[in-house]
Amino acid sequence: MNGEWDDETAGPGRVVVGVSGDSLASLAALRVAAREARGSGRTLVAVLAWEPPEGEALYLRHPDPAWAAHWRGVARERLAGAFDEVFGGGPPGVVAERRLVRGRPGPALCRVASRPEDLLVVGVWRGGRWPGRVRRYAEAHAACPVLAVPAPPEPVALRRALRRARPADFALRP
């Protein structure tokens, strides 16, 4: 997994999925993408886009290859963790590639899903500061169809319990 994309090595019609590894929408998208790939006989390409936490602009002012290598390793662990969480390893019955791409998620996904016969799958979480930002970018710039997968709703009992929670409920107990 070199983080690069190569149109020469991939077969026609891949299912490309954006994976963050830390959201329910991302995990749901990975599950749906594997089902789409299995049903159509296409290769699943799971992409985790990453950047140094301080951002590329600051990193370019003070480059540190060891620091970048550390964060690339963290990204690799998040991608592996997503596969473990969803499939317990690799998806059954699907040829899967895992790719790390350094860059913003929207542009990185559109670069990988660059052919009209590809399918780009993105998870959509309807909360947060920028709901659907990657989806909107993909829909505006992708060269292929985009499938948006919503995050599963939280169980009602969990939402009620969290509303009643107090800070003391989260304190470490001896």
From TrEMBL:
Ranges for domain UspA: 14-150
Give the source's domain of life in one word.
Bacteria
| CDD domains, per the entry | USP-like (cd00293)
The name this protein carries in UniProt is UspA domain-containing protein
- Which organism's genome codes for this protein? Streptomyces spectabilis
